[in-house]
Each structure stands twice: as C-alpha cells, then as structure tokens.
Amino acid sequence: MKNITKRKIDDFFIILNEKKIYPVFQPIVSLEDGEIAGYEALSRIDDPESSLNTEELFSVAEQLGYLWKLEKTCRKAAVKAAAHKPKDKKLFLNVDSNIILDEDFVSGFTKEYLHAHNLKTKDVVFEITERHGVENIELFQQTMKHYESQGFAIAIDDLGSQYSGLNRINYLNPQYIKIDIALIRNIHNSKSQRSLVSMLVRHCNDMGYTLVAEGIETPQELECLHKLGVHYGQGYYLARPDKNFVELNPDAKKQLAELNQNAKKERKNNKISALSKMGWILDPACQATYAYELFLKYDELSQISIVDAKNHFHGLLMRDAFMNHFQDKRSIPADSPITDWMDESPLTLDANDSLKTAVLQTMTRPTEKCYEPFVILKNDRYHGIGTIHDLLLLLAKKQAIIG
C-alpha cells in the first residue's frame, strides 16, 4: 500500500464503522430550458477531525479492499435521503464498473428496496465510473442490460479521463454521457476542447444520448457549452452540492434564460447563425498525417475546419477527398502540412445571412459540391459549420409551424 499512514487507516475505519458519511446533492440542469433534470448524489465525510478528504477516502478503501463496503454505505445513505427529492427528478448514483457485478449490489437495488424509500427504478441513473478498466466486458454488458430492462438508466461518467474512452460508448449504449471536467475547464479559450465537445454533441444527437458537461464554473464556460449545443450541465456556477435539493444560482438561471431567449430570436429571425456548430478545428501548421489519424479514428468525422490562432478561416479538409489520395499513412509525403490538401474556397456565409440566402447559395453550387457543408463567418472570423441536413430540418420545422 502506498502513501497511507496509520492515521489515515485508523480514520478510514472510524468513518466506515461509525458511518460518518452523508450525501449531498448537486443539480443537473437542462441547458435547453434551464430546468433541473436531476441530482447527482455525492458523499461527504461527517468528521471535521479526519485526516482524509473524500477522494482519499475512496483511494484508501480500494487499497484496503473495502471499496464495496464503502460504496454500499454511501449508496444507502443517498437513497434514504433521496426519498425527499423533488418529484420527477432523476437521482444519479456513482457506481464502480466492477462492483456493479457483485451479487450484493443486485440485491441492494430491488424494486422493494427503492419503494421503501419512495423511489422507482425509472428515478435512478447509474453513473458508471472506472477506477480500473472493466475486468469482464461480456458479463458487464449482460448486467447492464438486466438493469436497463428493470427501468434503470445508465450514464458513462468522466468521459475523457484515464479509463473512460470512447469505446465504452459502443459496448454500454448509455442514455447519458458525462464529459470529464478536463474538457470543460476554460473551454471558451480552447479550440481543441470546443472541437472535441462539438463532435460529441453531434454523436449524441445521432444516437439519442444526452450529453452532460460536468464542472461548469464560469459564465464563459456556460455560454460556450450552450452555443455548442450541449444538452445538460452541472457545476459550481450552476449550483453547489448541498444536503438539500437546491435550485439554480440566480445568476446562472438568469444567464440561461437570456441565452435561450437569444437562441429563439435567431431561429425566429431566420438567421443562418442558428445552424452554426463549432465542428472539429485544426491549426494550419498541423501535419497531414495527424488529420489522417483523426479520420481513421472517428468514422463520423466528415470534415475539419482549418482555423488559425486569430480565428481566421483558411479552408476545409474534406474526409473523402483527402483520404482517397493515400493508400495508408506512410504514403503521405513527409512533413506535408494540412493546408496542402484543404479546399481553400468552400461556400462561406455570413452569420447574419438569411436561411433563404443559404438555400439559394447551397443549391446553386456545382452538383458535386451541392451537399457539402458550408462555413459560417461572423465579422470575418470563423463562427462554425452548417450542414444541408440541419438547414433542411430547420426549414421543415418552420414550414410545419407556419402550415
């Protein structure tokens, strides 16, 4: 065992045996309407003299072989307290991916047990965490299907952290995906982070998943995530964890209302900016080999915007046109910059252009380019990518409303 003093071990057993631990609840908020969708249960130590914080508590439990007992204690306390949660709000519970296979876990989540605390299976979302990789993927998949058949929902926690790779989405097929805080922190200042999150938004929209951004701590992060189309948010700026089931912070609630009102105005005013999505972005100095690796890794990635540090747009790198040039990565000329292979003159539209203008310009392009995405600029700076699919979908919705 590493970095565990006798004091920490003694404090751990005091906390565990005397159940000196209690739950707090942090709201998970819909960024689309500002409503609270649910609450994540988090554990706190009820011992001001303890030498452990919560993170250390779980680390010690794992090293001593008491992780299951600790999680069981935390979960029971959370379920008991959640008997008083607001009606129709989800309860998100953190569960280690390997512990969920334990027989005691199964018996701890019977309908009778939940009913005793005024809960139903449809109220509960298991947030699957991975302190280590899943030991038996096939058994894990079977277990998840069992819980889903009982009415529980599944969330992947901390996507983007050490063990939380994209492959988990494929074998879990979750209802919720929670983005690790590392991808959210200062996202408004990072093209790379915005591009990654934008791709996740598109994937979740295609698959019907709900994307949750964790760790929102500033108005700037909230505004950026709202613009990217992230569905739900969670973090200190929205509301801090509390023993009670609290409402949103007034400043965050007001900002969300304004953001959603502005978004409605854009859609109502028929501006092309309503279709803008950040898309995947690379700097002009990037090597072509890196783009090749990205296209191989992400099947859904159809184009990459080439944008410099000052947000000037340089061109579009289209997947098919680029990949068809090469048999494999080794056939790409050494030190070939990405700019050698981009389309320098794709269709560009101003963010204030009308939807009618967008339709006319996209449909009068050469036939081979008719269904390619278009670039949206604002004040001559890159604003995002628009697609024919989204353009036609928005027009169809407007027609349905008018009709």
List keywords for this structure.
TIM Barrel, CBS-domain, 2 domains, 3-stranded mixed sheet, 15 helices, 39% helix, 19% strand
Outline of the structure:
This protein is α/β, with parallel strands linked by helices and 403 residues long. The protein is built from 15 helices and 14 strands. The protein has 2 domains: 263 residues, EAL domain (TIM Barrel, Alpha-Beta Barrel), CATH 3.20.20.450; 131 residues, CBS-domain (Roll).
Rounded mean pLDDT is 87
Annotation, overall tally of beta strands: 14
The CATH architecture of the largest domain would be Alpha-Beta Barrel
Unreliable parts: none
Strand content: 15-25%
Q: Taking Cα atoms only, what radius of gyration do you get, to the nearest Å?
A: 24 Å
Number of domains: 2
Number of helices: 15
| Category from helices, strands and their pairing | alpha/beta
| Major beta sheet, strand line-up | 1-2-3-4-5-6-7-8
Query: What is the name of the CATH superfamily of the largest domain?
Result: EAL domain
Structure description:
Helix 14 (355-363) links the parallel strand 12 and strand 13. Helix 2 crosses helix 3 and helix 10 packs parallel to helix 11 (250-268). This protein folds into 2 domains: 6-268, EAL domain (TIM Barrel); 272-402, CBS-domain. Helices cover 39% and strands 19% of the residues. The N and C termini lie far apart (69 Å). The protein is an alpha/beta fold and 403 residues long. It contains 15 helices and 14 strands. The chain has an 8-stranded mixed beta barrel. It is globular and about 70 Å long. It has helices at 6-17, 54-64, 67-81, 103-107, 111-115, 137-149, 167-172, 181-184, 191-207, 219-228, 250-268, 288-297, 319-323, 355-363, 388-402; strands at 21-30, 36-45, 90-96, 124-129, 153-159, 176-179, 210-213, 232-233, 281-282, 303-307, 313-318, 348-350, 374-378, 381-386.
